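Reader question, answered in our methods column.
A reader sent in the components of a multi-part assembly and asked whether the whole thing could be modeled at once rather than chain by chain. We filled in our standard form and ran it. Here is what they sent:
COMPLEX SIZE: four components
ENTRIES:
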Amino acid sequence: MIRRPAASLNPGLLPELIGYRLRLAQQAVFRDFAASVPGVSPGRVGMLLLIEANPGVTQSRLAQAVSRDRSTMVGVLDQLEARGLIERRRGADRRTNGLWLTRAGRAMLARAKRAITAHEQRVAARLTAAERTRLLELLARIAV
Amino acid sequence: MIRRPAASLNPGLLPELIGYRLRLAQQAVFRDFAASVPGVSPGRVGMLLLIEANPGVTQSRLAQAVSRDRSTMVGVLDQLEARGLIERRRGADRRTNGLWLTRAGRAMLARAKRAITAHEQRVAARLTAAERTRLLELLARIAV
DNA sequence: TATTGTTATACTCTATAACTATA
DNA sequence: TATAGTTATAGAGTATAACAATA
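And here is the structure of the entire assembly that came back:
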């Protein structure tokens, strides 16, 4: 049977929807991140950055900061701890665990930050510096 | 023990990263969508819109259009079919299934489109029309 | 009583590999 | 041989409910 090259689909309404464009942009950024910063997802790096900026933060406060249930954090932190990137230390309020980067965690985060710098440049390659700033500002108005 | 109100965390580097802002914006949009368009996720509505704009599209072409594996589509389409929103019809190439909205599917999609109109207005409530257009354009340059 | 961390459990979304029927 | 749809299976990532320790 003769095969015509499959024309791309009619996208219909989708390109007019902010949510759709956000999803496509996020998927593109995620793919580039995965290729640029091997071994950790954007979400995990985000947590490491928060622990770096807030040493000793409790699990629950970190969970709140990333909009996840505190039970969800347990497994995530177990993994980061098993990889030697963070440690839990019993807090003054002995119900809590304070979270700290280990030496290895600080080293990996330093490497990740350098990779993220290059990643950000690729992601914004088609934007001027002013456009990039404008995009961040418009996104902040979407997310409140 | 005396409890100080937990100050919000120091966000560190995160607010400067396009991927982080995209994620927050997308989560906010997703939440509003879920509250506005009950019963279907953004992804599912996207598929219904593509089937509407491309009646008879095959499963594999739809999978390609939404960047998913064709095996992933099977279960998704099973669900939409079980809900009576779409039907599969054997294609002229008898290996393929053409996808079509049912009458119920068209009706639900019409309702969803009205809900999406209101949803889009809420999402862009802090943006002028020109800013909204600008945002869509900048996002398109991120996602290629 | 209320909160923190934990466990058990389940659900959603996704992919890979192998199968079948058709081409 | 190659492709479309399917199945079995597995892995992320997430949430809810219930529990022990501590406040």
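What stands out: Residues 1, 58-60, 70-71, 73-74, 91, 93-97 of chain A lie near DNA strand C (CB under 10 Å from a C1'). Chain A has a mean pLDDT of 95.
Send us your own complexes using the same form.
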